[in-house]
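Note to self: user wants both folds in one dump. Writing first protein now.
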Amino acid sequence: MPDSPRELGARIAARRRARRLSQPELATAAHVSLSMLRKIERGDRSPSDATLEAFAAVLDVDATQLRTGYLGTERRVHAALPELSAVIAGYDIPQGHPNRHPDELADAVSTAVQWRLGAQYGRIAATIPSVLADAIRYVHTAPAADHPAAARLLASAARTADAIAFKYGANDLSGRLIDLMRWASDRSADPLVQAVTAYVRTETFFAARAHTVGLAALEHALDTAPAPTGRTEAAARGALHMRAAVIAGRTGDAGAADTADHHLQHAHTYAAQVGHEGTYLGTAFGPDSVRAHEVSVAISLGPEHVDRALRVAHGWKPPASMPAERRSGVYIDLARAQHWAGLHRDAFESLKVARAAAPQHTREHPWAREVAAGLRRHHRADAESLTHFAEWIGAV
């Protein structure tokens, strides 16, 4: 069910107050009249898509976090995918100088990384084609002394572009972006960037259901990763172990659970060394991220391991400080476990929490759609609300 004007207005007002902005400040920054903003916040008027996106930009959120079911993000992402394909078609061919100064480019990449962690895919799509193009040009034109840093920037930009390609099912483009990331990481000669690239490359094995070879690739990456002499190095190794645990659970091998637990134990060890949750080289890692992956491992192992997921969730909740995409993923995994366990009300509540954390991530996640469809078929309580959710996520 679409938001009523009053619901939408209240959500905009709440976000504005959370950002400590006055109505005149938001109106000025969004280039709308103060009287219009007041009418919108009272629910007397609905904003156009352009106005909604202007508010979202000032409030530093994706428009999907203001209006339930907003489709502008999907249109923007799908429009960006062909642009990205064109940008990377000749990434190994010099194409002139970047339009951005290196410092400006570094800031643009850093901002896009934060959007990726916050699952703000529409904002990524609006800028990443030009950012990626400049990063490619910079690698080809940077002075020798700056070349490793330029390659690191390109790897990070390619990873951010891959986030929308992979989430929106453009698997071929995702694979090409990961190839670009590997090319850049090799040129950086930075083993930490190479470890991050191995972490991201696992997406191609997930997409192809090539779990056994994916596990082998991650274990090779662990063999060559830097020694855990500091937090960043420990986080890089810990993230690889988290990823290895999940893909091990999906191999279907007789020893899958033991292999997954082996990697989880190592991930816990490195999380203790890191000491607290943080973002390292664009990847969230720490004790909470490892707990999140414990839930993912249980789901990977299948319905007979549902109690593992429920035990983790019983004594732990992902903190609000965890990146929105990962937090949403935890609740999608939990919803699947609860659905398997027959806890239908709990599963629906988990899906709603996932949507509140990262609406577009939830909408595009095949497991969220699968659970919503299953709940709608078999669960009659709260039927109207569940039907509206299923329609929103595309499960009907």
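First done. Writing the second protein, which came from a different request thread.
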Amino acid sequence: MSDSTTTHIPSSESRGPRNRFNVLIFLSRYGVVFASLASILAFAILNDRYIQLDGILSSLSLGSPLLMLALGLTVVLTMGDFDLSVTGLTSAAGAIVVILMVNHDWSWGLAVFVGLIFCLVAGSLNGLLVSYAGMPSFITTLATGLILIGTRYESADGRNITGSTSLPDIYRDFGIGEPDPLLGVRTPVWIAAGLAILLWLLMSKTEVGRYMYAIGGNPEAARLSGINVKALRASGFALVGFMALFAAVTSTARTASSVADSGFSTLLGAYAAAFLGAAASRRTLFNVPGTVLGVIFLQAVDRGLTIEGYSTGVRDIAKGCILLLAMAFTLLGASRR
């Protein structure tokens, strides 16, 4: 008599395809990390100077303003918005702070406070136009970014503002400072690290952060669940302005000047870092640790190309290719979820 309760056990052949290595899944999950390690290894092999500690710490210091901007963009990107005005805001705020100190003999604290108010007002204006007026974030911030770039040029007649002999030492310390006696890390790195930790706590450990991700997933569903979508989106743009102030202070303090520049390359790098961070996430979500990884990757590539003698144009081409790669990994990860 046959046993009708016999359980069929799948053979190893039937289980095999499920456990088979999938290149697409691997790339979508670990492509950014693998590319970062491969790039670092390649440059280290090409030139011994690449792995010198002083150079690495200097690269981290130079990349701190970029990280600050990328962190701000991570917030608005999480909620499905863009902010193309961030580098224009940084340039204008830096000019205001330096002009007040150099041309009007203001104290550094008061000048920075005015710069902070300017950044918060400009960021909040973006938020109001996008969240409450219903204007598209891409076009709106592109327009306000152009206004801010024009404001910076007009404030200094299109010239660079140099204050190497006028800026107080305490202000210069925000951009260079003495290396930490224990780790050798300079002040900008500590500032960027502190901001990254605070933002990570906000987005990962609070209800506000969970609401932001909910808005990015489905804003209408978030609104119906009781989340104040408009207020949170507006606050995201204000936070971008807050981060822009720190980037402006550290960059102008390092060079002791405000440079008349549109900042397009910096904008490209900040977005590339944020998208690289999303690509490195298992769920292809924008996140603070991923953005930090993205900035480190970009700085590693930029430093390697600089040591090898490549021009600024070639480095910008490389960043553009990296941004395309990040987008490809992000889309690939989304398609594999």
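Dump finished. Worth passing along: Strands lie at 161-162, 257-258.
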